[in-house]
Amino acid sequence: MEKLEKPLEEWRDELSDTQFHVCRLGGTERAFTGEYYATKTPGIYHCACCATALFDSDAKYDSGSGWPSYFQPVSEQAIASKEDFSHGMHRIEVKCAKCDAHLGHVFPDGPAPTGLRYCINSASLKLVPKA
């Protein structure tokens, strides 16, 4: 996937304050406050920064965590991951493969068929409902 790179100042101009904090600075939303944590609207969740398709609503489930949770991305090429040792924890950070937006983290406690829980910030997503 071809990378999309922009200076932070350009991202700041294009994104809301919350989106910028989450996507470009690696922040997080408080649990149960994001726009999509409880939505059941069928559709595809795209990156809020670059519009890359990331997650299908068919893979969304209620993890009880307070963030939108998915058991798999639309494709392995859509996301990138890296080890994250921040806040005294060892986690796997999930990023958009195209623009490196911080999405959230993936944990090995999800449902079948993958056993994974992609715990994603609503601010990093834009839902495109299915027609």
From TrEMBL:
<feature type="binding site">
    <location>
        <position position="50"/>
    </location>
    <ligand>
        <name>Zn(2+)</name>
    </ligand>
</feature>
<dbReference type="InterPro" id="IPR002579">
    <property type="entry name" value="Met_Sox_Rdtase_MsrB_dom"/>
</dbReference>
<dbReference type="GO" id="GO:0033743">
    <property type="term" value="F:peptide-methionine (R)-S-oxide reductase activity"/>
</dbReference>
<keyword id="KW-0479">Metal-binding</keyword>
<dbReference type="Pfam" id="PF01641">
    <property type="entry name" value="SelR"/>
</dbReference>
<dbReference type="InterPro" id="IPR011057">
    <property type="entry name" value="Mss4-like_sf"/>
</dbReference>
<feature type="binding site">
    <location>
        <position position="47"/>
    </location>
    <ligand>
        <name>Zn(2+)</name>
    </ligand>
</feature>
<comment type="similarity">
    <text>Belongs to the MsrB Met sulfoxide reductase family.</text>
</comment>
<keyword id="KW-0560">Oxidoreductase</keyword>
<feature type="active site" description="Nucleophile">
    <location>
        <position position="119"/>
    </location>
</feature>
<feature type="binding site">
    <location>
        <position position="96"/>
    </location>
    <ligand>
        <name>Zn(2+)</name>
    </ligand>
</feature>
<dbReference type="InterPro" id="IPR028427">
    <property type="entry name" value="Met_Sox_Rdtase_MsrB"/>
</dbReference>
<keyword id="KW-0862">Zinc</keyword>
<feature type="domain" description="MsrB">
    <location>
        <begin position="8"/>
        <end position="130"/>
    </location>
</feature>
<feature type="binding site">
    <location>
        <position position="99"/>
    </location>
    <ligand>
        <name>Zn(2+)</name>
    </ligand>
</feature>
<protein>
    <recommendedName>
        <fullName>Peptide methionine sulfoxide reductase MsrB</fullName>
        <ecNumber>1.8.4.12</ecNumber>
    </recommendedName>
</protein>
